[in-house]
From TrEMBL:
Keywords: Coiled coil, Intermediate filament, Keratin. Residues 53-133 form a coiled coil. This is KRT84 protein. GO terms for biological process: intermediate filament organization; keratinization. InterPro entries: IF_rod_dom. PROSITE patterns: IF_ROD_2. It comes from Eurystomus gularis. Gene3D superfamilies: 1.20.5.170, Single helix bin.
Length: 183
């Protein structure tokens, strides 16, 4: 064999090394370009996300204020509801008491009415009895008046001095009294 052909290992190694360095440089450049593009994409995405996050925070803050306001209104409504329920309970209790008092007064008035009716009936009975007595007395007075007139006529006829007896009406009754008279 011919050793004259010296393998130029150093040249081959240098050539392979140059190729590898070129491949490494290109790979590094591609990687850097890829990383730069990815970094730019992430930066843009992060910017969009930051804007979105800012908007979301603003919405959350606004919603928090709305929730706090609504919670205050709910508490106020609950307080008002409790007050109204207490007022209704008081009114109901007062109404029941008023109805009870009214029923008691009605019962007292009905009792008083029955008593008044009984008293009126008793007074009417007494009045009727008194009217019967008065009528009997009026009849008796008229009878005595006629008897006295008859006696007066008899005494006058016998020659005695004349006596004048007059009968007067007084409040629905007759009143008789002697009136001396000279004829």
């Amino acid at each position: 064999m011919n050793n004259s052909q010296d393998l130029n290992l150093n040249g081959i190694i240098a050539d392979v090394k140059a190729r590898y360095e070129d491949i490494a440089r290109r790979s590094r450049a591609e990687a850097q370009a890829w990383y730069k593009s990815k970094f730019e994409e992430l930066r843009v995405t992060a910017g969009r996300n930051t804007d979105s996050l800012r908007e979301t925070k603003k919405k959350v803050s606004e919603l928090t204020r709305v929730v706090q306001r609504l919670n205050g209104e709910v508490r106020s409504a609950k307080d008002q509801c409790c007050k109204l329920e207490a007022a209704v309970a008081d009114a109901k209790q007062h109404g029941e008491k008023t109805i009870k008092d009214a029923k008691h007064k009605l019962s007292e008035l009905e009792t008083a009415l029955q008593q008044t009716k009984a008293d009126l009936t008793q007074q009417l009975d007494e009045y009727q009895e008194l009217m019967n007595v008065k009528l009997a007395l009026d009849i008796e007075i008229m009878t005595y008046g006629k008897l006295l007139e008859g006696e007066e006529s008899r005494v006058s006829a016998e020659g005695g001095f004349p006596i004048n007896i007059s009968a007067r009406h007084s409040q629905g009754g007759l009143t008789c009294g002697p009136e001396p008279g000279f004829a």
